[in-house]
């Protein structure tokens, strides 16, 4: 039986999800990114309107390998969220998102940024699998699985999905 952690069953309120999705979309627009993979590292190193100082020591640069080779990209996206949300100037230019944010909200942002809903929905059905999305979007298969479930697609049973959301 497929797991379902779609938008309606999430612990993140709908208005918070909408704000996070809007922030992710705004960043993609500002950086003129229209296809995967989203360059999270570039975004960290080239701040919009000099809103933050690039500081690679603040990002966990774990060398990923095997199943986790793309985990550092998700860490970069989460760091980007924190840098933006902690900056009052970001809100002034319209980059608004909930802060303080729960771990689930920060992880949700990373998935929204690296796997935008419209891009996932545009994929042919045969490419809408965790492994195919992992390769195309350069994210972990687990995060691709979570994203598919968030968007209402059927995914294999996994008791850990709801706990990690």
Descriptive overview:
The protein has 165 residues and is an all-alpha fold. It has one domain (7-164). 50% of the residues lie in helices and 0% in strands. It is built from nine helices and no strands. The chain has helices at 14-30, 40-45, 71-85, 88-92, 103-114, 117-122, 130-137, 141-150, 161-164. It is globular, with a radius of gyration of 15 Å. The two termini are 19 Å apart. The model is unreliable at 1-6 and 159-165 (pLDDT under 50).
Topology:
Layout: H1 14-30, H2 40-45, H3 71-85, H4 88-92, H5 103-114, H6 117-122, H7 130-137, H8 141-150, H9 161-164
Helix pairs in contact: 1-5, 3-5, 7-8
Strand runs, count: 0
Number of domains: 1
- Give the class from helix and strand content and strand pairing: mainly alpha
The best one-word shape is globular
In short:
The chain has helices at residues 14-30, 40-45, 71-85, 88-92, 103-114, 117-122, 130-137, 141-150, 161-164.
């Amino acid at each position: 039986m497929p797991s379902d952690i779609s938008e309606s069953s999430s612990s993140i309120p709908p208005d918070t999800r909408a704000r996070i999705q809007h922030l992710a979309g705004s960043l993609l627009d500002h950086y003129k990114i229209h296809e995967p993979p989203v360059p999270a590292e570039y975004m960290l190193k080239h701040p919009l309107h000099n809103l933050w100082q690039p500081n690679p020591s603040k990002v966990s640069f774990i060398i990923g390998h095997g199943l986790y080779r793309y985990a550092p990209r998700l860490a970069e996206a989460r760091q980007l969220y924190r840098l933006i949300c902690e900056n009052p100037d970001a809100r002034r230019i319209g980059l608004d998102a909930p802060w303080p944010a729960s771990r689930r909200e920060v992880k949700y942002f990373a998935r929204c940024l690296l796997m935008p809903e419209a891009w996932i929905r545009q994929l042919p059905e045969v490419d809408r699998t965790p492994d195919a999305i992992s390769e195309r979007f350069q994210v972990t298969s687990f995060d691709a699985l979570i994203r598919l479930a968030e968007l209402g697609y059927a995914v294999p049973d996994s008791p850990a999905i709801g706990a990690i959301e």
